[in-house]
Amino acid sequence: MFPPTTLSRPLKNNYVQCTACEHWCAIAPGKAGKCGVRRNLDGALRLVVYGKAVAVNIDPVEKKPLHHVLPGSDIFSIGTVGCNLSCAWCQNWEISQRKEFDVQHDYIGHAWPPERIIETCLERKIPLVAFTYNEPTVYFEYAYDTVRQARAAGLRTVFVSSGFETLQALDTIAPYLDAINVDLKAFDEQTYRSYCGARLAPVLRNIRHLVSLGVWTEVTTLIIPGLNDGDDELRAIADFLAAISLDIPWHVSGFVPHYRMQNRPPTSAETLRRAWEIGRGAGLRYVYTGNIWGHSRLAGCADTYCPMCKAPVIGRSGYRVHIFWRKPGVCPQCEYRLAGIWQSEQRRYEPQP
Q: What is this structure's pTM?
C-alpha cells in the first residue's frame, strides 16, 4: 500500500536508516523517524504520505517568498503532515507537527498523486509547483516523482525548505528542481538545537551546495525579538550569504507570536529596517522585508532595484507586483541583467560578477 523509500538503507535486526535528512534516523520495526511519516513497516522504510496532500492552495509566488522566480505568477502549493524539525514558532504546526497517527484509519490528506498535480497546473495554466507548508524532504520520493513529471511537462518546481537535507537528497533532486527558499533560522548552534531540534552546520553547507549546483536559491530569516535579532548575528548571516554570492536574495521576515512561542512580541518595523540595512551593508544586491506591511519605515524595502543604476525594476505592495522592465529581468534604464529566473523557459541562472 505504501511505496518504499529510495533514500534509505537496511541495518541489522530489521532496522532501517533514513538517508533523506541530517538526522540519519535508525528506525526500529513498526516505528517512524523524527518526521513521523517515514516508517519502518516489516523491515522496509516506507513513505506513508505518498500522494497524500493535507494542504493544497494556489498562491502568488511572492508568498513563498520568492522574488526572483517568475514574479507575479501563480504557484500550486502542496504539503503533507509531518516534519523533521520542531520549531517553537512554526506557523503550520497543526500539520507539520502531526507525527502520531494511524496510517490505516486516520485522515492524513486527500489523494494528490503527481499526475493529478501536473494535470491541474496544465489545465489552469499555473507555471510553478511548490512543495511547502511542511518540510518537503520528509516526503522526498513523492516530491521527486512530481518534479520529474513537472520538468517533462514544462513546469517549474520549488522547494520551501529548512535546508536540513543530506547531500544525497540534494544531488538527487537538483537536476529537476528550479528554485528553493531555505529558511536560515539563526546563526547560532544553540538556537537550532534548543528551538528547532536541528543543527546549523548542515544548513550552511547546503546553501553553499545548492548555489554550486545552479539551483536558484533565496534565503529567509524570521527575525524573532530577543532570539536572533542582534546586530552581530544578523551581520554574520549577511556576511555568510555575501561570501557565497552577492546575488542571493535575503528575506528578513516579521515574526508573529505562534505555537509554543507566545511570550515574545511581534517584530517591529524598525528591527526589520535595521536587518535590511545590515544586509545591504554587507553587499547583498537583493534584500527584502516581508510579513509586515504598511509601515513607512519599510517603504521600498520589498522592491527590487537594479544593482548598477538603482532604478526600480519590480515594485511590490504585499503580494501585488508591478513590473517596470521592458525585457524580463533586465533593468529598463541601464540594461543590467538581474539574477533570477525571469522567463518560463529559463532553467538556470547566470550570476553577474
A: 0.96
